[in-house]
Design a protein that fits this description.
Layout (H helix, E strand, L loop, with lengths): L7 H21 L2 E2 L5 E3 H7 L1 H5 L5 E4 L2 E5 L4 H9 L3 E2 L5 E5 L2 E3 L15 E11 L4 H19 L2 E7 L9 H18 L3 E4 L9 E7 L5 E10 L1 H5 L4 E2 L6 E2 L2 E10 H11 L13 E5 L5 H13 L4 E3 L6 H10 L4 E5 L1 H6 L1 E6 L5 E5 H13 L3
Parallel strand pairs: 1-6, 5-13, 9-10, 16-17, 16-18
Antiparallel strand pairs: 2-4, 3-4, 6-8, 7-8, 8-15, 9-11, 11-12, 12-15, 13-14, 18-19, 19-20
Helix pairs in contact: 5-6
């Protein structure tokens, strides 16, 4: 179907990426919303997608009316903004959505995890006043920097300007491009201009990531939109209550498509996931059958503390168990024999390190907690 099946270990990583972004949303003043997967085609006509994007949409009939699966979340968020009168005091309003998106990509364009027909984005839309654009863009750039530093990525910034096919007034476009250029200047990072490569509804900042092999990918996005709020006739009441003003909309994603980010990280880490993202955080290897009950007890304690931990209960020799665990890229291999069972400890071996250490379960769990907090 041009879409992915994630098995349990893949789903662990996928969900951890989303949980990570969710935890950042709490700190950065975003509110998460949920929106429908399909809408009547009238909505896409209002948004301009029917005219500009229909060939990339899955369209079908429901009760003699045309419907489309959403390729983007923005029109739905416009409806949410519009459902009651808004005040200037509510702005900036930051709505985040991990909704499932469908795009009808040609089969020849589909590529692994990076180009698929069904995917999720860490998508968000910021509704703000014109005077707040610069601060909001600066906040998003800081968010991107924080996340990409944790992954160990470097990134380049480009300002993509008005394309040939565009919606709206020329003066509005000029104003939007100037606001983005100013925020980029203030970010203190070098940036370039990418003439004519903006979206049809507004200019954007393209963020291309370089991974461990120095290959470039487009993941995060930051787009300014003066058009959709006008097309949906969005407004808020200003300080003078009789006065209505139209908000500006900022489309932004940090990971971009979670599927694509998964693929990039998989190659970036060469399959050796850092502990905080790892689907195989630890494995307990009992030396013999005698220490098996203790091994299961250790597994239970670590599992209850919230980590992914397995136990090797096969009757193979301990050297073989450890070698298998190393090949499977477990972050921590915990060997337990009679001595450990008697003292309530574990012999700890860390992936890609030769040394061993002996720890109590309590100090091991404290160490795990510190590793997660430091995104190791």
């Amino acid at each position: 179907p041009g879409s992915w099946f994630f098995l349990p270990h893949g789903a662990r990583i996928y969900n951890k990426l989303m949980d990570f972004i969710r935890s950042q949303y709490r700190e950065r003043g975003y509110q998460e919303v949920l929106s429908p997967n399909m809408y009547n085609m009238q909505l896409w006509e209002t948004s301009g997608h029917a005219a500009n994007y229909k060939e990339n949409m899955f369209v079908f009939e429901v009760e003699k009316q045309e419907f489309g699966l959403k390729p983007m979340n923005c029109p739905g968020h416009c409806l949410m903004f519009q459902h009651r009168v808004r005040s200037y005091r509510e702005l900036p309003l930051r709505l985040a959505d991990f909704g499932v998106l469908h795009r009808n990509e040609a089969s020849g364009a589909l590529t692994g995890l990076t180009r698929v027909r069904r995917f999720q984005q860490d998508d968000a839309h910021i509704f703000c006043r014109e005077s707040q654009i610069k601060d909001e863009v600066r906040g998003v750039l800081e968010f991107i920097k924080h996340v990409y530093n944790i992954f160990g990525f470097t990134f380049d910034l480009k300002l993509s300007t008005r394309p040939e096919k565009y919606l709206g007034e020329l003066a509005t476009w000029d104003k939007a491009e100037a606001a983005l250029a100013e925020a980029l200047d203030e970010s203190g990072r070098p940036w370039q201009i990418n003439e004519g490569d903006g979206a049809f509804y507004g200019p954007k900042i393209d963020i291309s990531v370089s991974d461990a092999l120095n290959r470039k990918f487009q993941c995060a996005t930051l787009q300014l939109d003066f058009q959709l709020p006008a097309r949906f006739e969005l407004y808020y009441s200003a300080e003078d209550e009789a006065k209505r003003e139209t908000p500006v909309m900022i489309h932004r994603a940090i990971l971009g498509s979670v599927e694509r980010m998964f693929a990039i990280l998989l190659e970036h880490y060469k399959g050796k996931w850092p502990f905080w993202l790892s689907p195989r955080q630890a494995i307990v290897c009992p030396v013999s059958e005698k220490s098996q009950p203790y091994a299961l007890q250790v597994q239970d304690q670590i599992f209850k503390a919230g980590y992914y931990v397995d136990v090797d209960t096969t009757d193979r020799k301990i050297q073989k168990k450890v070698r298998e665990a190393l090949l499977a890229q477990y972050n921590y291999i915990l060997v337990v024999g009679e001595e450990e069972a008697n003292t309530g400890q574990v012999s700890v071996r860390v992936r890609d390190k030769a040394d061993h250490s002996v720890k109590s379960i309590e100090s091991l769990l404290k160490h795990f907690e510190e590793e997660i907090a430091a995104f190791h």
